[in-house]
Amino acid sequence: xxxxxxxxxxxxxxxxxxxxxxxxxxxxxxxxxxxxxxxxxxxxxxxxxxxxxxxxxxxxxxxxxxxxxxxxxxxxxxxxxxxxxxxxxxxxxxxxx
Amino acid sequence: xxxxxxxxxxxxxxxxxxxxxxxxxxxxxxxxxxxxxxxxxxxxxxxxxxxxxxxxxxxxxxxxxxxxxxxxxxxxxxxxxxxxxxxxxxxxxxxxxxxxxxxxxxxxxxxxxxxxxxxxxxxxxxxxxxxxxxxxxxxxxxxxxxxxxxxxxx
Lengths: 97, 154
Description:
Helix content of chain A: 40-55%
Strand order of the largest sheet of chain B: 1-2-4-3
CATH architecture of chain A: 2-Layer Sandwich
Order of helices and strands of chain B: EEHHEEHH
Strand content of chain B: 5-15%
Shape of chain B: globular
Distance between the termini of chain B: 18 Å
Structural class of chain A: alpha+beta
Number of helices of chain A: 4
Structural class of chain B: alpha+beta
Number of helices of chain B: 4
Helix content of chain B: 40-55%
Largest sheet of chain B: 4 strands, antiparallel
Order of helices and strands of chain A: HEHHEHE
Oligomer: heterodimer
CATH class of chain A: Alpha Beta
Distance between the termini of chain A: 25 Å
Radius of gyration of chain A: 17 Å
Largest interface: A-B, 27 and 34 residues
Strand content of chain A: 15-25%
């Protein structure tokens, strides 16, 4: 395997990702006010998930403080965050490092 | 509020006269969540966070305006409510129930924010906080009724 010159590897890591690359995480964060049943309902509506999967992520939010819901391209991640925030859920998108 | 009939994606919900008044009173509070409450990113590590935030703010503003129009139509249209011996029947589709859940959650979250975003159960009830506590809890109660209606329909 060719040895990389110092700095080149770092440069490759720093290169901006394409907006089409699935490098963005959609995360839902816990809060003490959203009802658990409601959060499950929203996950089912937004992602079309079956109830057990929606409940799994809802419980992860509740017990661990957050859940990574999906890894997507920039545009799709934005779309999902908009959908989740329509329901006033505390959802954000973060670049996957 | 209870589900009395489901047919062809149409849900018939029965409300007592007082329940109907409470629901309408509550819905008049919409919107309650401040427009700058929701951030698109917590770590702000997006290629263009400002543009992403603006896109989100615009989408939510449009959504709020649509919701207000739909809400007004629901409240102003007497045909949506049919009176019977036990109170009133409200007919809603599954999509409308989902939309009403969004509206109610905005009222719940907005009221919680006004109360100072308490982490635990809110216990300081006084003339200033009582209306917001009432709105938060009542919105949650109607949300649970609607969620159970959707679930019981399968």
